[in-house]
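Morning!

This is the sequence you dropped in the shared folder:
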Amino acid sequence: MILKVKIGSASADSGEKSHGFVEVSRSPAGFPVGFPVNIVNGSKEGPTLVAGSAIKGNHLIGGMAIARLFKSLDPGRLRGAFIGVPFVNTWAFEAEDRVPTLLDHRSMAGLWPGRQAGTISERIAYAYLNEVVRRSDSCFMDFYDQERGWQPTDAGLLSPPKPEGWFTSEQYDKYLEWLKVFGVRHVWRTKGFHTVIDESMHQKGVVEICIMLGGLADFRRKEQFVKQAMRGITNVMKRLGMVEGEIEKPGYKTRILDTQEVSNRLGGIWYTDKEFDQEVKEGEVVATISDPYTAEVLEEIRSPITGIITSMWCNPVVKPAERVLGVGKLVETI
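The structure's back. Tokens below.
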């Protein structure tokens, strides 16, 4: 018999689901500060899968997928437990911003493992990690968005193996396999990428799947990414034996890329005819910056390598010295 799962005010016995809230503090006006939590406790024994989204408050895709899965999952047909936090950074979500502007203005993305006696964002990070994430005994899924102003993106984030990154070869292969199960078009090998979970969870065999989906302001385009996130979480559940069915594979192969960022020097009107996943040559002009008053081309932006476009700014106006696109060197296609 599966024991009751209780987190904050959410509590679910075997075969039940529950929605609640983990209160970390209170605002000056007395409103709770913390994060929501959804629990689906299956009627049969199995693994515990944790999924969270919106560490940055304007990253919405994963949260919408987690909420819909909570609504649709039948605990009577589930093995193990699904724990979802649709929006970790709720006050940043309220502000439609990356950071909680009404609290401490700090980005939670760089605060792990948090501090129990730190700033309010550090305390929320600490509570999220210790009260939710550490409950996973199999897999933790961490969702980010490509924000408005960027072309749509479909990627998983991964540290390269040592010595370039901090994963061992075994950890790298394991993470790559789970990203393949989820189903992404790109895997971005980023040297600076670091997981939320710590070494103690790695030693227990827990894997963190970090996903970057979305882009553009058009909500109708976002819907396809919400469905992709739901399919990906369900694929992971199928692989873990939590739900029945065959893993749904995407209709494309995944490209593993060593990524680098490209910046403009001047501000002005940005133009490009390139697209996400398009191949480019080293030295090829991939975008221009023009004078907004005369249309004179002020700067040509060239690809630093032969590779594949991983991300690209799509707002017509660009500020000086911004990260305007990403290019990845192809490592492998799987």
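Headline: The radius of gyration is 21 Å.

More detail when I'm at my desk.
O.
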